[in-house]
Amino acid sequence: MNDEKYLREAIAMAKANVKNGGGPFGALIVKDGSVIGRGVNQVAHNNDPTAHAEMMAIRDACKNINDFRLYGCVIYTSCEPCPMCLGAIYWAHIDRIVFAATKDDASKAGFDDSFIYDEFSLAHEQRSIPMQKMVLREAAEPFEQWLKLENKTKY
Amino acid sequence: MNDEKYLREAIAMAKANVKNGGGPFGALIVKDGSVIGRGVNQVAHNNDPTAHAEMMAIRDACKNINDFRLYGCVIYTSCEPCPMCLGAIYWAHIDRIVFAATKDDASKAGFDDSFIYDEFSLAHEQRSIPMQKMVLREAAEPFEQWLKLENKTKY
Prior knowledge:
homodimer
């Protein structure tokens, strides 16, 4: 019951955002029965290609609870997360994802989620954005420094 | 030659960030021979799980050039991008990626990039974070509204 209520709210946020000139996506994050973060797509408004609804909701929730981990949280999103947002959901350690529209629905509306998912399954050299590894002597040094460090904040 | 110079700079930024208490990652974005954006990992510092080096560099570059697209840009990053950052690179329409350490190097240092890449290739029901699609009558309405809209800012 609550899943349905929160998901309907995420869709309502997406619709309101289109009316306000934003993209057709909304998301919210719930912990222990309370909404702790909300987001709508603000890519064009903020000139920020990372400002997807789920990203904004995660950033809002983390700010509100003063933690970069969202253990025990559920994210409700009007559309299946794109790879960027899904990655962020993993890094945030969210427990569960509930979504309404699919990435194929997004594609039909002009949003290239499926294309990006397809790219991920290709080898580096077959992708439309070339990925070049350069061998440099010092490549491992940041990690070596990190591993030696005591009292670091792990994340 | 320039690729090497910029990539060394990204690694130097990663090392400096560890000294400042941050994560061992740095990235910069170059357009027409100028650095237009820089970022280091600030997840713990900002309480923001999306604050990876590449994300911060993309957001910085977009702010600086006042555009959410980075056509004609190259991103130099001390480590192979994680799925979140790679997704953001696609959404930003960056031309090319140059990186030093690999996702396996990152895994050895305790960063779960490889794990997240593996999750992406699993079916929804096999993933460690459950993804539940809920069928709702109004799921397509945000997209329908978007498609009908005239004079929208496409992104």
